[in-house]
Amino acid sequence: MDVNSLTLLVEILDAGNLSGAARRLKMSRANVSYHLNQLERSIGLQLVRRTTRRVEPTEIGLQLYEHGRTIQNALLAARESVSTLGQSLQGRVRLSVPSGYGQLVMSDWLIAFKRLYPGIVLDVMFENRVEDLMRDEVDIAVRVMSEPPQNLVARDMGPVRYVACASPAYVREHGLPTRLDDLRTAPLITAAVIGRQLRVAAYLRDERHEVLLEPTLISENFLFLRQAVRAGLGVGLVPDYVVQDDLLRGDVVTTLDEWRLSIFGTHMYMLYMPNRHHTLAAASFIEFMLEQARGSGRGAGEKFESGSSIGRRAVSDE
Question: Class of 162-262 per CATH?
């Protein structure tokens, strides 16, 4: 057994199947399968269980994976130390962020980071769909959820509070919902997930309530939702950061303020794979973003560690 054999096993299990590993290693699928078979024969034990869609590690396969990941990370760190010696910080960070939070909150942070580290390439995707960090080779994802996922490292970026809001013109003509149940019949403007019933969870002290919603205007583009609320088309149910500036100017007013409202989750988390080597660029990016979140009062950067990344599942987002 050599380092190349362990690297092959790591790539296969990280990719989840032989075809994905072949693409990452720039080899044919048959070649990957041959080398895996050779490794298993040399050890005399089965390392992975193959299904029609995925491969899963056996107990010994998982142990070797952890050793291989440790060796791979050490080699990457050593190469990076040599290549960056005497140079300004360089590298590439591929990031996936929610459209609203990314544009309205994180944009200034991203620009400030880029000014501080001009040698780092930032590849930023603004999207709201469920994302597998390995499939699309995303280094870091920022997502809204109620609980941090068990299969990823999650750094708390602070609470997310939804507000029920409307423009003054809408209020003058139609009034505002004053009871939680009024949201059932109000012309709601909000985001939704295709194929999922939309419900708002509402907390009043220790009591939890839930209301089924039927919006009249739906979009995953929060800038468009903000514009629709300001235009007086209905009652917006959006994260507070979407209309924060509008509230300060008086262009939007809120109601049901005594309730803590949530649709997709109560916290924003920065997510990344456990046991993956972080380049200096990625590590610097993570700490910079968490510091910005702390400075904004949104989060303290609490870290939630998971175990092995093998057998991971998709994470809900918005």
Answer: alpha beta
